[in-house]
UniProtKB/TrEMBL annotation:
<keyword id="KW-0496">Mitochondrion</keyword>
<dbReference type="InterPro" id="IPR026590">
    <property type="entry name" value="Ssirtuin_cat_dom"/>
</dbReference>
<dbReference type="Pfam" id="PF02146">
    <property type="entry name" value="SIR2"/>
</dbReference>
<dbReference type="GO" id="GO:0008270">
    <property type="term" value="F:zinc ion binding"/>
</dbReference>
<keyword id="KW-0479">Metal-binding</keyword>
<feature type="binding site">
    <location>
        <begin position="277"/>
        <end position="279"/>
    </location>
    <ligand>
        <name>NAD(+)</name>
    </ligand>
</feature>
<comment type="similarity">
    <text>Belongs to the sirtuin family. Class II subfamily.</text>
</comment>
<protein>
    <recommendedName>
        <fullName>NAD-dependent protein deacylase</fullName>
        <ecNumber>2.3.1.-</ecNumber>
    </recommendedName>
</protein>
<dbReference type="InterPro" id="IPR026587">
    <property type="entry name" value="Sirtuin_class_II"/>
</dbReference>
<feature type="binding site">
    <location>
        <position position="211"/>
    </location>
    <ligand>
        <name>Zn(2+)</name>
    </ligand>
</feature>
<feature type="binding site">
    <location>
        <begin position="251"/>
        <end position="253"/>
    </location>
    <ligand>
        <name>NAD(+)</name>
    </ligand>
</feature>
<feature type="active site" description="Proton acceptor">
    <location>
        <position position="152"/>
    </location>
</feature>
<feature type="domain" description="Deacetylase sirtuin-type">
    <location>
        <begin position="28"/>
        <end position="312"/>
    </location>
</feature>
<feature type="binding site">
    <location>
        <position position="160"/>
    </location>
    <ligand>
        <name>Zn(2+)</name>
    </ligand>
</feature>
<keyword id="KW-0808">Transferase</keyword>
<dbReference type="InterPro" id="IPR003000">
    <property type="entry name" value="Sirtuin"/>
</dbReference>
<dbReference type="InterPro" id="IPR029035">
    <property type="entry name" value="DHS-like_NAD/FAD-binding_dom"/>
</dbReference>
Length: 312
């Protein structure tokens, strides 16, 4: 397949898709040549492996970390908690759970967008062999996808680090409320990892509930920065790469090695690799093509052209 890389800037002018969400970076419409390339790629892929990143969830209203001008790092000095911080510091756990508690009503209400919905439909049609997401927002499962590996876990589940106790994040919200009946703080500055920014004085009276089973430390089932994806999960995804015919990357820069290693494996196995992402992708020399466009707009075009073929 011919390598195709079309720039973010065309004729010295930056394009913006209409109705872009505030967390979606500057982008241009997909060109007809790109649509044809993507359609040919999808037609030739009998067993498609899909990997999604934050660029899929931004269109549902969830910010990402690194996008130019609109990512969390570009807009604020807020940084996500590190795994070792959470383990070793009761103060850091207090701050984390306070911020997460405030953010949860909004974060849990985010809904799938056209990307999630079309991918779920492709799974039902047997077009996707497996889907791996680097996101922790559960939007793929909300949309109906079942053949999914949540590489970095899911914010909708909580477990104890000391025993095998598990609970839903919604139940954790109720438990926190019971421990903090008079604590009431509001914030609208949502972060990608499902928390908000709060000042130290706002969280000083917040109480973190222990595990109801053993009084151990409760933690969301997500991979914090500085932690590692379980080896069993990594091996499982490598197996899914071996089983597929082609790999499609959606909304990911592959900045984190946990996802990049699977693209390296696919390339070594000579699997065709395509990508839809606004901005540079790590290891772009491994790709057969990249479309520098908004995922949602690309899927709208795919949906429209598919509908036209059915009608014809």
């Amino acid at each position: 397949m011919k390598k195709l890389f079309l720039p973010l800037l065309e004729n010295g002018r930056r394009f913006f898709c209409s109705h872009s969400h505030m967390f979606v970076p500057a982008n241009r419409p997909m060109l007809e040549e790109e649509l044809n390339t993507l359609q040919n790629f999808l037609r030739q892929a009998g067993r498609l492996f899909v990997m999604t990143g934050a660029g899929v969830s931004t269109e549902s209203g969830i910010p990402d970390y690194r996008s130019e001008k609109v990512g969390l790092y570009a807009r604020t000095d807020h940084r996500p908690i590190q795994y070792q911080e959470f383990l070793k510091s009761a103060d850091r756990r207090q701050k984390y759970w306070a911020r997460n508690f405030v953010a949860w009503p909004q974060f849990s209400s985010f809904q799938p967008n056209i990307c999630h919905e079309v991918l779920a439909q492709w799974e039902r049609e047997g077009r996707i062999s497996w889907l791996v997401t680097q996101n922790v927002d559960a939007l793929h499962t909300k949309a109906g996808s079942r053949r999914v590996t949540e590489l970095h876990g899911c914010s909708h589940r909580v477990h104890c680090l000391n025993c095998s106790y598990e609970m839903t994040r919604s139940d954790m919200q109720k438990l926190i409320t019971e421990f903090n009946p008079d604590w009431n703080i509001e914030s609208v500055d949502i972060a990608p990892d499902g928390d908000v920014q709060l000042k130290d004085e706002q969280v000083k009276d917040f109480k973190v509930p222990p595990c109801p089973n053993c009084e151990g430390v409760l933690k969301p089932e997500i991979i914090f920065f500085g932690d590692n994806v379980a080896r069993s999960t990594v091996n499982f995804v490598f197996e899914k790469i071996r089983e597929c015919d082609a790999v499609l990357l959606l909304g990911t820069s592959l900045y984190i090695y946990s996802g990049y290693r699977f693209v390296l494996a696919a390339h070594e196995q000579k699997k065709p690799i395509g990508a839809v992402n606004i901005g540079k992708i790590r290891g772009d020399n491994l790709l057969d093509f990249q479309i520098n466009a908004r995922c949602g707009k690309v899927f709208e075009r795919l949906k429209i052209t598919s509908a036209k073929k059915i009608i014809c």
